Amino acid sequence: MTKTLDLLKSLIEFDSSTKDAANKTLQFCKAWLEQEGLEPVRLTNDGFDSLICNVGAGEKRLILNGHVDVVSGNPDQFEPKVEGNKIYGRGSADMKAGVSAMMSALSELQHKDLGNTSVQLQLVTDEEIGGKHGANFLTEQGYLGDFVICGEPTQLGIGYQAKGILQIDIHLKGKSAHGSRPWEGDNAIEKALETYQKILELPFAKESTALFDGPSINLAKIRGGTVYNKVPDEAVISYDIRFLPGQNEEEILKQIQTITDGEISVHLSGASVINETDNPLIQKLVKEISEETQQPAETIKLFGQHGFADTRYFARFGTPAVEFGPSGAAWHGDNEYAEINSIETYKNILVKFAESYSK
Fold first, then answer.
1. Nearest to 196 by CA among 205, 186, 208, 209
2. Distance between the two ends of the chain, CA-based, in angstroms?
3. Mode of pairing for the β-strands spanning 48-55 and 41-45
4. pLDDT tens digit string along 93-148?
5. H/E segment holding residue 62
6. Strand 328-329 versus strand 164-173 pairing type
7. Quick one: how many helices (H) and strands (E) in the chain?
8. Domain locations in the chain?
9. CATH of the domain spanning 3-162+272-356
10. What's the CATH code, domain 164-270?
11. CA-to-CA distance for 315 and 66, rounded, in angstroms?
């Protein structure tokens, strides 16, 4: 068993689906790094811990970003199981495989000549609930580099763009009436459903890019009505909109305001991630992936993510950030797993990329 796999098994055993447990997981990571001769630093924001660990002293900084928190799971999912080339367990793919490889890579890199490069490992405890206290806090405090690799599971491909996020609630007013005479009222739930159809016809909803057929518009929640025999005079309809790179929240909100008299409140918003494939560091990463996996460079998958990761917090400051991680499947599902051989391959790519980073 490799050092990386042994570390991953230990990480899976932590049910890090709560703040306190995720903090304990991070404390384990800190102790592990210290045993490897490194000097990690723990930071705390609103009770959520983050970890920073540096190697090298160069001016060009590479950030390795990971999260140790997971979504909830059944008790047996925190008992790692190895079957063939797969290791099963909650968080095995998302994203403790990436974290264990990054930690192992940092341990190796402390003994390498990195030239004008410094590498900073960042581990956080709240990515699965939005990242407000982790990556958001770190980037606001200036923990930014020249390039960021977020170790989400990408099957050793590179997610170089990602949709932004806009979650909103629309509060709609109607007029109550007796249920037997609905024409005397103004049904707020019907207004909510009409609003949904109108949103799908707005200009932003019809746009597309080379990577995306369109934005994702999810009718997430609807609330209204109290009894059967009354026309509802109030309704709240909620949307999870993942907008395209190049679109922005302000314009989307303006368009929505043209088709409803409801009160719009923003629950969550976040920038899209916009990179181009001709970025020299992305091309360098492709080269290292190609050489380590012995695949032609043109077959390395470059793609756009429909969801979002902590890359978005770096992107808002203009720092190029990509998702790049090991292979796996069924994350957030009952049979989540990571592919064992890809984890060591991923670690090797990180080491070689860091070594060549400033050359």
1. 205
2. 33
3. antiparallel
4. 999 999 999 999 999 999 999 999 999 999 999 999 989 999 999 999 999 999 99
5. strand 60-67
6. unpaired
7. 10, 16
8. 3-162+272-356, 164-270
9. 3.40.630.10
10. 3.30.70.360
11. 16
